[in-house]
Amino acid sequence: MTRLHVDWTACQGRGHCTELLPELLAPDEWGYPRSTDDTKEPAVPVALLPHARRAVRHCPRLALHLVGP
Amino acid sequence: MTAVLTAGRLLGAGHPDLRGHDTAHGPLPRLPHDVLIGVVRDAGLTGHGGAGFPTHVKLAAVRGHAGGRRPPVVVGNGAEGEPGSAKDRTLLARAPHLVLDGLQLAAAAVGAAKAHLYVRPASAGPLARAVRERRAAGRDPVPVVVHQAQEAFLSGEESAVVSVLSGGRAVPRDKLRRVTESGVGGAPTLVQNVETLAQLALVARHGADWFRRSRTFLATVTGPVGRPGVYEVPHGVALTALLAAAGGPVAAPRAVLVGGFHGAWVPAAAVDVPMSREGLAPYGASPGAGVVIPLAAGECGLARTARIVGYLAGAGAKQCGPCLNGLPRLAATMAALARMEGDPSLPAGVARLAALVRGRGACGHPDGTVRLIRSAMTVFADDVTAHLHGSCLDGARP
Ligand code: SF4
Ligand code: SF4
């Protein structure tokens, strides 16, 4: 299962990712992405893969990564 | 702080010079890498830096990347940033050659061409002399370079060590690429605590069965005990026996902090628990790097925890948003609870913030901080209730 990884050393919050991928990410009270299922690296369902790829591409800090098969 | 020796072989047979070391321990066997990794696996050796990760898994991971463009690198980690810990510098002072033996064994196991030692400034000079002594004796096939670590809580974090040795800042980095695959200068890298390396030198000499029977570890007992210091004790020793070895608590403590500032409180009723991963698991604790701190008589566990969390909030590398923002908030909330500000929402606030920071950083700092806080909220649950009503079970005044 493909997972979403946030590089916290790069992420600066207030993100596009939470807008592009609301199914998986919601902003926390400081604007940093928090996985909606509260896991460290949320699993990306196949149906959401295109959205996830778009969020990865649009992260201005290159902080989002898709990992795994 | 005074180190007290026991019958163990880490400190007990330690001799700072090479000749004394040879007399005490005998020659270092040369084992093929796969045999050595197998012995380490059978011995059950795990890391003594804090995380307790199985050593053979790391060795095999780095070995697995040995065929690449850059030959592997090994790093002996003696940065020892935990304020309560003194066991690594004690070991380096008393038995440097056991650590250096282990470094060579690790280098041979993973096929490394270069070895580093990353230690506190006070350990660096004597260690560099020990390295020269061995070089003159033609002992070390893999060259060793000694580096001075910064004295900071997180300076020994594996990826921070790698970052410094690669010419960068002493801060943890993202774990998407593991250091075992791409570490110092992009080379596959094994970072191993210096005590683990000394243990490795014993495993190679005496075998897995001996190790399982005779295994010891180094603990630092600090705080209100008769003789604070570094103690070498049998694996799985009862926490009470370890405290007794250190002269016993000055007064019966209500709880004992085990595993340092990223550790957990063990309640008084359980102080005969064995110092092992399995024994301590029910309390959310683990031996970690072996730091043991009893609560002083009349000291409020919540106030003590709040002070530690305040320290931890300031010790972060301040690069990950949730850690950078969340830890100071957690510290402030714990401090309000410790001050008996009768706001009934404080415990829920602690729980919410703990869940918010956990797992959301490049290193284990948020998770270690949450572990300490959650154990305090459990072990000192009665104190929490009392504090919310404006009184303290330990008689402290706000
Ligand atoms: S878009 Fe990138 S930098 Fe912005 S919040 Fe999301 S992960 Fe962080
Ligand atoms: S989690 Fe905290 S301590 Fe760890 S690297 Fe990030 S900011 Fe630094």
TrEMBL record, chain A:
It comes from the Bacteria. This is Ferredoxin. It comes from Dactylosporangium siamense.
From TrEMBL, chain B:
GO terms for molecular function: 4 iron, 4 sulfur cluster binding; metal ion binding; NADH dehydrogenase activity. Residues 219-253 form the Soluble ligand binding domain. Keywords: 4Fe-4S, Flavoprotein, FMN, Iron, Iron-sulfur, Metal-binding. Residues 306-387 form the NADH-ubiquinone oxidoreductase 51kDa subunit iron-sulphur binding domain. Gene3D superfamilies: 3.10.20.600, NADH-ubiquinone oxidoreductase 51kDa subunit (3.40.50.11540), NADH-ubiquinone oxidoreductase 51kDa subunit, iron-sulphur binding domain (1.20.1440.230). It holds the Pfam family Complex1_51K. Its cofactor is [4Fe-4S] cluster; FMN. GO terms for biological process: cellular respiration. Residues 40-200 form the NADH-ubiquinone oxidoreductase 51kDa subunit FMN-binding domain. Belongs to the complex I 51 kDa subunit family. This is NADH dehydrogenase. It comes from Dactylosporangium siamense.
